[in-house]
Every structure is written in C-alpha cells, then in structure tokens.
Amino acid sequence: MIHILFGNYLKRIGKLDSDQLAKVYEEQKKVRVKLGLIAVSEKLMTLEQADEVNKLQSMLDKRFGDIAVEKGYLTNEQVGRLLGMQGNLYLSFVQEITNENLMTMEEVEECYENFQKELNFTQTEMDRLKSGEADLLIPLFLPLGLAEYQKEHILVFIKTLMRLIDNDLYIDKAGIISEIDADGYALQHITGDADATLCFVAEGNNLLKVANKFAGEEFESVDADALDACAEFINCVNGMFASDCSPKFNVDMLPPQYKEGSATLTADRLCLIPVYIHGEKINLISVFNEKLIVEGEN
C-alpha cells in the first residue's frame, strides 16, 4: 500500500508524472530488491558504505551481505533480516525509481521524510506502513476511540477486498461523521452481543469496481443488480467475521439490504473509510453499537 501512497505523493509534488508512475509500478513487479538499497533504507548503512560494497562486489566473487559483514557494516543477523525484505513493494518501488534515473536516492529520502511529516506518523508507524502487512498498516488509518470489535470488523472487510477485489488497493485516513449522502447503498447489520453495520456508499459508478469483480459480470451502471452484488460481498465478509467471533460473541446476521438512487445515512458516529480500488474512491461506512438511520426506512 505504501508504494501507491508514496507514488501518489511524488506525483502530486511534481517529482513523477502519470506515465512514469505507471511504468514504475509495472516494472517493479519484475525486480528483486538489492540488499544495499534495503540496508540504506533501513538506516543500517550509509549510501557511501553501500557504494563501497557494490564496487568491491564487482571485483570479488562474493555476495553483498558477506562483504558488508567482513567490513563490519552489518551483522549476520541483520543480513538475514534484510534478505527477508527483498520482496517488499516499497523497496522495489524505490529501486525502480533510482534504476530509471527518475530520482536519486538522496531525493527519495528527502521526499520520504516530507511524506512522513504530511502523514504525521511516527517512525514506528512508518515502519508498520512499509512492512506491507495489512494487520499492521490498516489500523494506522483508523480514528482513535474505535472499539476493538469494530476495528477487527473493518480489518476483515478491507483484507477481503484486497484478497478478492484489488490486491493493490489503498486507503486514506478515516474519520467520524454523523451524516453522508449517497447515490445508492448496500449494507448489512449484525446483531447480538455487539451490534455492527457495514455499508458501501455509492459515488457515481465507482462501486462497479467491486460489483463487477465479485459477481464476474460487467454491469454498465450501479443499478439494483450491481448493488445486490455489493450487498452479497458484504454478506460474505460478515459470514467470515461472525464465524471468527463465534467463540467470543453471540451474533446474528440480518439479511443484506441495498437501494438505488439518492439516500442519506445518519448516526452519531459514522466511521467513514475512503478505500481506493483501481484508483477509484469507494466509501466504506462502519457503525458500531448504534442504529444506522437510512432515509425512507421506518
């Protein structure tokens, strides 16, 4: 996720254009990250030290890690950890930027520091974001004060979107609101020891990114059939979540609902999570332990 977020940031500040960014995303899938770049990114070696080891590697029949250990720049344990990071998407993104001479490593590091300031994340939080592990990074974008049950519900939902709809989706910082207008919606309530509602809120035809993929059809617009597919996706997610919760909570799933056309959804605490699927924004709403009021319902 961070490679998309950072890429968007670089595009916004004029460091990369759309074509360059698209090419980097495509080419990074083909590369294996060099150990030196990882070591520099992790602040375990300086650029000068990595360049020195690279030059020695070109003259000696030895691996980068072995030379770095001999020089005292890395330990064997650190080399082992860095080797495990060679498939990291952020690092392959940075490597491709530098391979294509679009930016120097120094420029990347400067932009990364400014990107961190913009996100207002600590170094620990940035490390979680760079890890690429959904369980670590998704909570970074959720507002404070959510119940653990609600956070787990949201986490399962987004991870299922990543697995079934778009592995490269990304999210923006979520917030708490009290009302949202929609061009249509699909939702489902869970009742029992803990009440929860998950809802897709349609914006134009953006929900087709979910409906078409999940249903295996090509809906032309977000009509009743497309919303029904979105509602069935929510039902699928809630089924898995309810099964996971069964040892701890007694919960029941109500039938999923959907509605075409304009609607207004209100609650004291609507958690709004912007999710970007294939670049299109889709609003996910989570409500916990209160009734979600939908215009037109009794």
Structure in a nutshell:
The protein folds into 2 domains: 2-135, no CATH class; 140-294, Chemotaxis protein chec, CATH 3.40.1550.10. It contains 13 helices and 7 strands.
Essential attributes:
single chain; 298 residues; alpha+beta; Chemotaxis protein chec; seven-stranded antiparallel beta sheet; 13 helices
List the helices and strands and how they pair.
Blueprint lengths: L1 H11 L5 H11 L6 H7 L5 H13 L4 H7 L5 H8 L5 H11 L5 H15 L3 H9 L2 H4 L10 H17 L5 E2 L3 E18 L3 E6 L6 H8 L8 H22 L5 E3 L3 E21 L2 E9 L4 E2 L4
Antiparallel strand pairs: 1-5, 2-3, 2-4, 2-5, 3-6, 5-6, 5-7
In the CATH hierarchy, the architecture of the largest domain is 3-Layer(aba) Sandwich
Indicate the CATH class of the largest domain.
Alpha Beta
> Total strand count, please?
7
CATH topology of the largest domain: Chemotaxis protein chec
Helix percentage range: 40-55%
Task: Write the element-wise H/E pattern from the N-terminal end onward.
Answer: HHHHHHHHHHHEEEHHEEEE
Strand percent estimate: 15-25%
> Main β-sheet: number of strands, strand sense, barrel status?
7 strands, antiparallel
Give the radius of gyration: 23 Å
Low-confidence stretches: none
Distance between the termini: 40 Å
Query: Which outline best applies?
Result: elongated
Average pLDDT for all residues: 89
* Structural class computed from helices and strand pairing: alpha+beta
How many distinct folded domains? 2
Count, helices: 13
CATH level 4 superfamily of the largest domain: CheC-like
